[in-house]
Hints:
Helix content is 47%, strand content 12%. By secondary structure, the protein is α/β, with parallel strands linked by helices. The two termini are 29 Å apart.
Amino acid sequence: MKKRPLLIIGAVAIAAAAVIYFASRPVISRQGPAREAAGGASGPAEIRIVAAENFYGNIAAQLGGDKVSVKSIISNPNIDPHEYESSVEDGIAITKARIIIKNGLEYDTWMDKMISASPNPGRTVITAGKIAPRPLPGNPHVWYGADNVEAVANAITAALVKADPPDKALFEKNLSRFNASLAPIRAKINGIRSKYAGTPAGLTETIGLYLTRPMGLKVLTPFDFQKAIAEGNDPPAAGVAAANSQVDNKEIKILIYNSQTVTPITTHMRNAARARGIPLVPVSETMPPGDTYQSWMLAQLNAIANGLATATGATGR
Length: 317
């Protein structure tokens, strides 16, 4: 999605105002062990967590169970995470948080501004992009990699144990359960690889690379085209021509596109693919409401498997 410089004016003033006007107002509510939402059941919580994006918030809720309250700042799929501008309520949530989770890698720089505006040496800040063991160069979408998410879950659990040592056994049990729940995601990727490795595919932007590479799909779309779209820039003319030609000549069997990025270029590409009977598979940067991280990933992987089956005439997923 587009990455434009954010003008978050007066970040310090926002945080200060938040403390003054909202200090006595509950911002975060208790969440269940396998879900997270901006507002949920009422009641005090032991550990306050703020996540920049809702998939990290959901993971934190699964790991912390009823010992935590979680607020996800970006939970609406219609909001561009790159261009989000902070609010007063976001500022007060940051001031009260014991644990903060952000993506980093210049994906959510607005979080850095809010954290700087309310320094607190007693809280833990987890930056997924810094601890992800398998990041792709110039590609901030690390949460699409199961190994990366497992590393983030380990870091969240360590922060929970630090904040609440008596519940260490509970948190470690939740971590083991969470890590085991990633097995179906890995199995689905491996299954797709065993059946469709080498199949030519198209991508509108780089977010899909975290899926297509472990699947062994052969991405034909020029990388400079993908990267430009992901960064909100105009792709080079040669890249646009090549991407369109691959669609027009049906050189790709499937087109995976970011449903949260809509530009005239990607819209034309999608329409052309649809007209030529090339299966379209949407992926998103923000987890849909009501999903867990695991259900979200599996739904997208199933959609890719179905699209590949349709394109190649294979049976089953």
